[in-house]
Amino acid sequence: MGPVVLVHGIWNAEPGLAPEQAAREKAEDAAKRMREGLSAARLSHIGVPPLVMAYYAHQLTDDYRPEQQSTGQERLEDLSDDQLTEAWEWLRAAGVEPVESQAALLAPLRWGISRLVARRTRGTAPGARERLAELVSRLVVATLQDTDAYTSRPARRRAVRATVADAVRHSGARVLVAHSLGSVVAYETLHAHPDLELDLLLTVGSPLGLPALMRKLEPEPVAGRGARPSGVRHWVNIADVGDLVAVPPRLGDAFPVDLHETTDIGLFDPHTLGGYLSSGLTAAALAPYLAD
Protein backbone atom coordinates (compact mmCIF):
# COMPACT_ATOMS: atom_id res chain seq x y z
CA MET A 1 0.00 0.00 0.00
CA GLY A 2 1.49 3.31 -1.08
CA PRO A 3 1.79 6.39 1.14
CA VAL A 4 -0.60 9.34 1.12
CA VAL A 5 0.56 12.94 1.54
CA LEU A 6 -1.66 15.29 3.55
CA VAL A 7 -1.52 19.07 3.25
CA HIS A 8 -3.07 20.82 6.24
CA GLY A 9 -4.99 24.08 6.37
CA ILE A 10 -5.46 26.83 8.99
CA TRP A 11 -5.01 26.46 12.76
CA ASN A 12 -2.14 23.99 12.52
CA ALA A 13 0.81 25.79 14.10
CA GLU A 14 2.21 23.75 17.00
CA PRO A 15 3.91 25.92 19.65
CA GLY A 16 6.86 24.21 21.23
CA LEU A 17 7.26 21.49 18.60
CA ALA A 18 9.91 21.23 15.93
CA PRO A 19 8.38 21.06 12.43
CA GLU A 20 9.38 17.42 11.99
CA GLN A 21 7.74 16.41 15.27
CA ALA A 22 4.62 18.45 14.49
CA ALA A 23 4.36 16.71 11.13
CA ARG A 24 4.65 13.26 12.72
CA GLU A 25 2.06 13.96 15.41
CA LYS A 26 -0.41 15.42 12.94
CA ALA A 27 0.03 12.40 10.67
CA GLU A 28 -0.66 10.11 13.64
CA ASP A 29 -3.83 12.03 14.51
CA ALA A 30 -4.93 11.91 10.87
CA ALA A 31 -4.41 8.15 10.78
CA LYS A 32 -6.86 7.71 13.68
CA ARG A 33 -9.51 9.79 11.90
CA MET A 34 -8.95 8.00 8.59
CA ARG A 35 -9.43 4.69 10.38
CA GLU A 36 -12.82 5.99 11.57
CA GLY A 37 -13.73 6.92 8.01
CA LEU A 38 -12.80 3.51 6.64
CA SER A 39 -14.87 1.89 9.37
CA ALA A 40 -17.84 4.16 8.58
CA ALA A 41 -17.60 3.12 4.95
CA ARG A 42 -17.23 -0.56 5.92
CA LEU A 43 -13.77 -0.59 4.38
CA SER A 44 -11.74 -1.44 7.46
CA HIS A 45 -10.19 -4.38 5.60
CA ILE A 46 -8.22 -1.92 3.47
CA GLY A 47 -6.33 -0.43 6.40
CA VAL A 48 -4.79 3.00 6.83
CA PRO A 49 -1.86 3.71 4.49
CA PRO A 50 1.36 5.37 5.64
CA LEU A 51 0.54 9.07 6.03
CA VAL A 52 2.98 11.92 5.46
CA MET A 53 1.99 15.39 6.65
CA ALA A 54 3.41 18.23 4.57
CA TYR A 55 3.70 20.60 7.51
CA TYR A 56 4.22 24.25 6.59
CA ALA A 57 2.52 26.28 9.37
CA HIS A 58 5.91 27.34 10.73
CA GLN A 59 6.79 28.86 7.34
CA LEU A 60 3.97 31.41 7.34
CA THR A 61 6.17 33.83 9.30
CA ASP A 62 9.65 34.96 8.34
CA ASP A 63 11.06 34.57 11.86
CA TYR A 64 9.45 31.43 13.26
CA ARG A 65 9.05 31.38 17.01
CA PRO A 66 6.47 28.91 18.33
CA GLU A 67 5.26 31.22 21.09
CA GLN A 68 4.18 33.77 18.46
CA GLN A 69 1.87 31.43 16.58
CA SER A 70 -1.92 31.86 16.50
CA THR A 71 -3.76 31.09 19.71
CA GLY A 72 -7.02 30.37 17.90
CA GLN A 73 -8.58 33.59 19.29
CA GLU A 74 -8.86 35.45 16.00
CA ARG A 75 -11.14 38.51 16.01
CA LEU A 76 -12.95 40.35 13.24
CA GLU A 77 -11.39 43.53 14.63
CA ASP A 78 -7.99 42.23 13.51
CA LEU A 79 -8.91 42.29 9.80
CA SER A 80 -7.41 44.96 7.57
CA ASP A 81 -9.63 47.10 5.35
CA ASP A 82 -8.73 44.95 2.33
CA GLN A 83 -9.53 41.80 4.27
CA LEU A 84 -12.89 43.22 5.36
CA THR A 85 -13.72 43.80 1.69
CA GLU A 86 -12.66 40.25 0.85
CA ALA A 87 -14.78 38.93 3.72
CA TRP A 88 -17.83 40.56 2.14
CA GLU A 89 -16.97 38.98 -1.21
CA TRP A 90 -16.97 35.69 0.69
CA LEU A 91 -20.40 36.36 2.19
CA ARG A 92 -21.83 37.41 -1.19
CA ALA A 93 -20.56 34.16 -2.69
CA ALA A 94 -22.44 32.40 0.12
CA GLY A 95 -25.62 34.30 -0.68
CA VAL A 96 -25.61 37.15 1.86
CA GLU A 97 -25.80 40.75 0.61
CA PRO A 98 -24.91 43.78 2.77
CA VAL A 99 -27.69 46.04 3.95
CA GLU A 100 -25.77 49.27 3.45
CA SER A 101 -23.40 50.59 0.83
CA GLN A 102 -20.24 50.59 2.97
CA ALA A 103 -19.98 46.82 3.13
CA ALA A 104 -16.47 46.82 4.58
CA LEU A 105 -17.59 48.18 7.95
CA LEU A 106 -17.07 45.77 10.83
CA ALA A 107 -20.62 45.91 12.24
CA PRO A 108 -22.29 44.91 8.94
CA LEU A 109 -19.75 42.08 8.57
CA ARG A 110 -20.69 40.69 11.96
CA TRP A 111 -24.36 41.02 10.97
CA GLY A 112 -23.69 39.22 7.67
CA ILE A 113 -22.00 36.28 9.40
CA SER A 114 -24.86 35.99 11.89
CA ARG A 115 -27.37 36.06 9.04
CA LEU A 116 -25.50 33.36 7.15
CA VAL A 117 -25.31 31.13 10.22
CA ALA A 118 -29.01 31.66 10.94
CA ARG A 119 -29.87 30.49 7.42
CA ARG A 120 -27.83 27.32 7.87
CA THR A 121 -29.14 26.49 11.35
CA ARG A 122 -32.91 26.99 11.22
CA GLY A 123 -34.55 25.21 14.15
CA THR A 124 -31.35 25.32 16.23
CA ALA A 125 -31.33 26.93 19.67
CA PRO A 126 -30.14 30.58 19.69
CA GLY A 127 -27.21 29.75 21.95
CA ALA A 128 -25.94 27.16 19.47
CA ARG A 129 -26.26 29.67 16.64
CA GLU A 130 -24.22 32.20 18.61
CA ARG A 131 -21.45 29.68 19.22
CA LEU A 132 -21.40 28.75 15.56
CA ALA A 133 -21.33 32.43 14.50
CA GLU A 134 -18.27 32.92 16.71
CA LEU A 135 -16.61 29.87 15.17
CA VAL A 136 -17.35 31.10 11.65
CA SER A 137 -15.97 34.55 12.48
CA ARG A 138 -12.72 32.97 13.63
CA LEU A 139 -12.61 30.81 10.49
CA VAL A 140 -13.04 33.90 8.29
CA VAL A 141 -10.26 35.79 10.06
CA ALA A 142 -7.84 32.84 10.14
CA THR A 143 -8.42 31.96 6.50
CA LEU A 144 -7.95 35.52 5.24
CA GLN A 145 -4.90 36.17 7.40
CA ASP A 146 -3.19 32.87 6.63
CA THR A 147 -3.93 33.30 2.92
CA ASP A 148 -2.29 36.71 2.99
CA ALA A 149 0.64 35.32 4.96
CA TYR A 150 1.12 32.72 2.23
CA THR A 151 0.54 34.88 -0.86
CA SER A 152 2.15 38.15 0.23
CA ARG A 153 5.79 37.03 0.23
CA PRO A 154 7.17 35.34 -2.94
CA ALA A 155 10.08 33.68 -1.13
CA ARG A 156 7.78 32.33 1.59
CA ARG A 157 5.37 31.08 -1.05
CA ARG A 158 8.13 29.18 -2.85
CA ALA A 159 9.38 27.69 0.42
CA VAL A 160 5.94 26.38 1.37
CA ARG A 161 5.47 24.87 -2.09
CA ALA A 162 8.89 23.23 -1.80
CA THR A 163 7.84 21.63 1.49
CA VAL A 164 4.83 20.02 -0.18
CA ALA A 165 6.77 19.03 -3.29
CA ASP A 166 9.51 17.41 -1.19
CA ALA A 167 6.92 15.45 0.80
CA VAL A 168 5.48 14.00 -2.41
CA ARG A 169 8.86 13.26 -4.01
CA HIS A 170 10.54 11.72 -0.97
CA SER A 171 7.56 9.56 -0.04
CA GLY A 172 6.80 8.44 -3.59
CA ALA A 173 3.11 9.12 -2.90
CA ARG A 174 0.61 8.98 -5.76
CA VAL A 175 -2.27 10.32 -3.64
CA LEU A 176 -2.49 13.77 -2.07
CA VAL A 177 -5.24 15.00 0.27
CA ALA A 178 -5.35 18.77 0.62
CA HIS A 179 -7.52 20.56 3.17
CA SER A 180 -8.65 24.19 3.44
CA LEU A 181 -5.77 26.60 2.67
CA GLY A 182 -3.74 23.46 1.97
CA SER A 183 -5.77 22.97 -1.21
CA VAL A 184 -4.50 26.36 -2.42
CA VAL A 185 -0.93 25.40 -1.53
CA ALA A 186 -1.28 22.01 -3.21
CA TYR A 187 -2.83 23.48 -6.36
CA GLU A 188 0.02 25.96 -6.75
CA THR A 189 2.66 23.36 -5.85
CA LEU A 190 1.47 20.95 -8.52
CA HIS A 191 1.57 23.72 -11.13
CA ALA A 192 5.00 24.93 -10.00
CA HIS A 193 6.41 21.38 -10.00
CA PRO A 194 4.94 19.70 -13.11
CA ASP A 195 7.20 16.68 -12.60
CA LEU A 196 4.99 15.60 -9.70
CA GLU A 197 2.50 12.98 -10.84
CA LEU A 198 -0.54 11.92 -8.85
CA ASP A 199 -3.20 9.32 -9.42
CA LEU A 200 -5.54 11.26 -7.14
CA LEU A 201 -5.79 14.82 -5.88
CA LEU A 202 -8.48 14.94 -3.20
CA THR A 203 -9.42 18.44 -2.01
CA VAL A 204 -11.62 18.78 1.08
CA GLY A 205 -13.12 21.94 2.56
CA SER A 206 -11.46 23.93 -0.21
CA PRO A 207 -11.80 27.73 -0.58
CA LEU A 208 -10.20 27.68 -4.04
CA GLY A 209 -13.35 29.09 -5.61
CA LEU A 210 -13.53 32.21 -3.42
CA PRO A 211 -13.28 35.25 -5.75
CA ALA A 212 -10.76 37.08 -3.54
CA LEU A 213 -8.57 33.98 -3.42
CA MET A 214 -8.80 33.13 -7.12
CA ARG A 215 -7.32 36.54 -7.95
CA LYS A 216 -4.21 35.65 -5.97
CA LEU A 217 -3.62 32.17 -7.42
CA GLU A 218 -0.49 31.24 -9.37
CA PRO A 219 -1.24 30.56 -12.14
CA GLU A 220 -4.14 33.02 -12.13
CA PRO A 221 -7.37 31.61 -13.59
CA VAL A 222 -8.25 32.75 -17.11
CA ALA A 223 -11.81 33.95 -17.78
CA GLY A 224 -12.82 32.61 -14.38
CA ARG A 225 -11.46 29.09 -14.97
CA GLY A 226 -8.48 27.54 -13.23
CA ALA A 227 -6.17 25.16 -15.07
CA ARG A 228 -5.66 21.53 -14.13
CA PRO A 229 -2.15 20.64 -12.89
CA SER A 230 -0.61 18.56 -15.66
CA GLY A 231 0.48 15.70 -13.39
CA VAL A 232 -2.96 15.06 -11.85
CA ARG A 233 -4.83 12.11 -13.33
CA HIS A 234 -7.99 12.38 -11.22
CA TRP A 235 -9.33 15.24 -9.07
CA VAL A 236 -12.11 14.76 -6.50
CA ASN A 237 -13.51 17.55 -4.33
CA ILE A 238 -15.55 17.01 -1.15
CA ALA A 239 -17.32 19.78 0.77
CA ASP A 240 -19.42 19.60 3.90
CA VAL A 241 -22.90 21.03 3.40
CA GLY A 242 -22.26 23.47 6.26
CA ASP A 243 -18.60 24.25 5.56
CA LEU A 244 -18.55 28.03 5.19
CA VAL A 245 -14.91 28.00 4.08
CA ALA A 246 -15.75 25.81 1.08
CA VAL A 247 -17.61 28.61 -0.71
CA PRO A 248 -18.74 28.06 -3.37
CA PRO A 249 -18.76 24.33 -2.61
CA ARG A 250 -18.77 23.16 -6.25
CA LEU A 251 -15.20 23.70 -7.46
CA GLY A 252 -16.20 22.15 -10.77
CA ASP A 253 -17.79 25.45 -11.79
CA ALA A 254 -14.35 27.09 -11.84
CA PHE A 255 -11.82 24.22 -11.88
CA PRO A 256 -11.52 20.99 -13.89
CA VAL A 257 -12.65 18.71 -11.07
CA ASP A 258 -13.67 15.21 -12.15
CA LEU A 259 -16.08 14.57 -9.29
CA HIS A 260 -17.66 16.74 -6.62
CA GLU A 261 -19.41 15.30 -3.57
CA THR A 262 -21.03 16.79 -0.48
CA THR A 263 -21.13 15.29 3.00
CA ASP A 264 -22.18 16.23 6.52
CA ILE A 265 -19.49 16.03 9.18
CA GLY A 266 -21.45 17.82 11.90
CA LEU A 267 -22.77 21.27 12.78
CA PHE A 268 -19.84 22.20 15.03
CA ASP A 269 -17.16 20.33 13.09
CA PRO A 270 -17.88 21.52 9.56
CA HIS A 271 -14.33 22.26 8.42
CA THR A 272 -11.58 20.28 10.18
CA LEU A 273 -9.34 17.85 8.34
CA GLY A 274 -10.10 15.22 10.97
CA GLY A 275 -13.81 15.65 10.36
CA TYR A 276 -13.37 15.08 6.65
CA LEU A 277 -11.05 12.09 7.12
CA SER A 278 -13.55 10.42 9.45
CA SER A 279 -16.28 10.68 6.81
CA GLY A 280 -17.20 7.49 5.01
CA LEU A 281 -17.51 9.52 1.80
CA THR A 282 -13.86 10.55 2.00
CA ALA A 283 -12.83 6.96 2.71
CA ALA A 284 -14.81 5.76 -0.30
CA ALA A 285 -13.11 8.31 -2.54
CA LEU A 286 -9.69 7.16 -1.34
CA ALA A 287 -10.37 3.43 -1.28
CA PRO A 288 -9.67 2.61 -4.97
CA TYR A 289 -6.22 4.17 -4.61
CA LEU A 290 -5.36 2.46 -1.32
CA ALA A 291 -6.03 -1.17 -2.12
CA ASP A 292 -2.98 -3.29 -2.84
SSE topology:
Blueprint: E1 4-7, H1 19-40, E2 51-54, H2 81-93, H3 106-120, H4 126-151, H5 154-171, E3 175-179, H6 181-192, E4 200-204, H7 211-214, E5 235-240, E6 259-263, H8 273-277, H9 280-290
Structural write-up:
The protein is α/β, with parallel strands linked by helices. It has two domains: 4-64 and 154-290, Alpha/Beta hydrolase fold, catalytic domain (Rossmann fold, 3-Layer(aba) Sandwich); 76-151, no CATH class. The protein is 43% helix and 10% strand. The chain has nine helices and six strands; from the N terminus they run E-H-E-H-H-H-H-E-H-E-H-E-E-H-H. It has helices spanning 19-40, 81-93, 106-120, 126-151, 154-171, 181-192, 211-214, 273-277, 280-290, and strands at 4-7, 51-54, 175-179, 200-204, 235-240, 259-263. It has a six-stranded parallel sheet, with helices on both faces. Helix 6 links the parallel strand 3 (175-179) and strand 4. Helix 1 (19-40) packs across helix 9. The chain is globular. The termini are close together.
Helix and strand element order = EHEHHHHEHEHEEHH
Biggest sheet details: 6 strands, parallel
Instruction: Tell me the count of domains.
Output: 2
Strand content: 5-15%
Question: What coarse outline follows from CA principal-axis ratios?
Answer: globular
CATH class of the largest domain: Alpha Beta
SS field, number of helical segments: 9
Distance between the termini: 5 Å
- Annotated CATH architecture of the largest domain: 3-Layer(aba) Sandwich
- Estimate percent helicity: 40-55%
CATH topology of the largest domain: Rossmann fold
**What is the gyration radius calculated from CA atoms?**
18 Å
InterPro entries: AB_hydrolase_fold (IPR029058)
Organism: Streptomyces actuosus
Protein name: Serine peptidase
